[in-house]
Amino acid sequence: MEMFSSPEFWLAVGQIIMIDILLGGDNAVVIALACRKLPPEQRRLGILWGTVGAIALRVVLIFFALTLLKLPFLKLVGGLLLLWIGVKLMLPEGDDEHAGIQASAKLWAAVRTVIVADFVMSLDNVIAIAGAAEGAGGGHQMPLVIFGLLVSVPIIVWGSQLVIKLMDRFPVVIVLGAMLLGWIAGTMMVGDQALAAWVPAGAKPGAVAPLLYYGCGVLGALTVLVLGKALAARAAKA
Questions:
Q1: Which of 145, 174, 179, 208 is buried most deeply by CB count within 10 Å?
Q2: Neighbours of 17 (CB within 10 A)
Q3: What is the chain's Cα-based Rg?
Q4: Number of structural domains, the chain?
Q5: CA-CA distances (angstroms) from residue 151 to 23, 60, 138, 148?
Q6: Rounded CA gap, 126 and 65, in Å?
Q7: DSSP state, 208?
Q8: Hey, CA dihedral for 187, 184, 228, 118, is it positive or negative?
């Protein structure tokens, strides 16, 4: 229970919830599209069980991601992917992204659609959440992931539309969220096993020197901001 008194734990929980909200907009759309033909009395059940199944699947995927991130070079690859996801978050979205989501009039068919679609679209969430959990350290990554995802379930189910409206009204929310992904990417990449011989160590075993750790986080956040703004401006001109 000592992990609940750790500032790093609560910081990572906050990051996981923020990631799930920002990258969970697709989940809200998928759930709405898959359940739209259900009878009204079954729609709530479809949303609930679809979300529960998607979260359970994500916990399994993140377990494998946390294991794989211990291998050399994979944090570098995951960090680069996160940087791109952060940049992509700042770009205008296409209108036909969810055209392939089929609605069903049967409860379990709709739930299956939600889970399968979430599996296909979960790579960004899985890498980002695994990176945030890695940053907490202390050997509590899986409890942290499960706790963070459980806390985010009601936010996804009941708060997604509110958050989407906030993003529409205050675009700075999207920018800050994209920079958060850049921060996680920077701090994750500097901790890759392949760089251990060249990176100054911190006080804890396996930790990076604090100045370098936070500096790489800031560099990652600024990289996403600059690239995202530049590509968004280019897309607007085109």
A1: 145
A2: 20
A3: 18
A4: 1
A5: 15, 17, 20, 5
A6: 7
A7: B
A8: positive
Domain that holds residue 17: 2-237
DSSP annotation of 193: G
Residue matched to tokens 């995951």 = 78
Q: Is the pLDDT of residue 3 over 50?
A: yes
Residue 221 near residue 180, CB atoms below 8 Å: yes
Let me know: does 86 contact 224? Beta carbons within 8 Å. yes
Nearest alpha carbon to residue 7 among 136, 187, 128: 136
* Segment 29-78, tens digit of pLDDT: 666 666 767 787 787 777 777 777 777 777 788 778 777 777 888 888 88
**Using alpha carbons only, what angle is made at residue 39 by residues 35 and 42, rounded to the nearest 5 degrees?**
70
pLDDT classification of 118: cutoffs 50, 70, 90: low
pTM above 0.85, yes or no: no
